Amino acid sequence: MAAMQEHHVGWALIAGVTLERFPGVLALVERFPNLYAGVGVHPDTEQGEEPTVATLLRLAEHPKIVAIGETGMDYYRLEGDLEWQRERFRTHIRAAKLSNKPLIIHTREAAEDTLRILREENAGEAGGVFHCFTETLGVAKAALDLGFHISISGIVTFKKAQQVKEVAAFVPLDRLLVETDSPYLAPVPHRGKLNQSAWVRHVAAEVAQLRGMAVDELARETTKNFFKLFIKSNE
């Protein structure tokens, strides 16, 4: 928190990854007024309590829980019959629509199924963000057409991440967010280290340069987008 303050990073959102960890996350966001959280079970999580719509709705009633997720599809790490992953994704979407809270979406090597399920479930009614975006410009356009935001992580600072750089330059400013995905994917010049929320300024600086705008303007607009998407959804 001290590092966030030092780097003038005002707010952060913690994505939910398991239900078992949720009490600890909730205690943290209750302690700090500038922290918020989502509730959900990450698509890579194979062990632990499986979420139901009822459970997600109950946990999402807390005023500091402003999103449903992290949820989505991931065919990179897991193999075999992943129908359970697709059903879990549908569960989160239904909870998001019923709770009127946006989705935090993870997709990796599963863009076609991710978009298909979002369309089938009319997920645009809930909206949300494709976080830590690594897909093609075509996938970004499809996500935007469905009403979603795009969030850019520290990957955009990597020299060879041309696909992410292209997306970061393209996304309409009012649909753009920046993030760290801590503790992973530390941006240059900290690549390889344990990531932290304070370093989102490096992400913002790179995205601003790609878009030909001042970093302070980008920070102001993405902060506005954060509040419009997440905090107002909780009022």
Question: Could you write a compact summary of the structure shown?
Answer:
With 235 residues, this protein is an alpha/beta fold. The chain is built from nine helices and seven strands. It has one domain: Alpha-Beta Barrel (TIM Barrel), CATH 3.20.20.
Protein traits:
235 residues, alpha/beta, TIM Barrel, seven-stranded parallel sheet, 9 helices
Q: What would your notes on this structure say?
A:
The mean pLDDT is 96. Helix 6 (137-145) links the parallel strand 5 (128-130) and strand 6. The chain has a single domain (13-234), classed as Metal-dependent hydrolases (TIM Barrel, Alpha-Beta Barrel). The protein is 41% helix and 14% strand. It has a 7-stranded parallel β-sheet with strand order 1-2-3-4-5-6-7, sandwiched between helices. The protein is globular and about 45 Å long. The chain is an alpha/beta fold and 235 residues long. It has helices at 2-6, 22-31, 53-59, 83-99, 111-120, 137-145, 162-170, 200-211, 215-231, and strands at residues 12-14, 35-39, 65-74, 103-108, 128-130, 149-152, 176-178. It contains 9 helices and 7 strands, in the order αβαβαβαβαβαβαβαα.
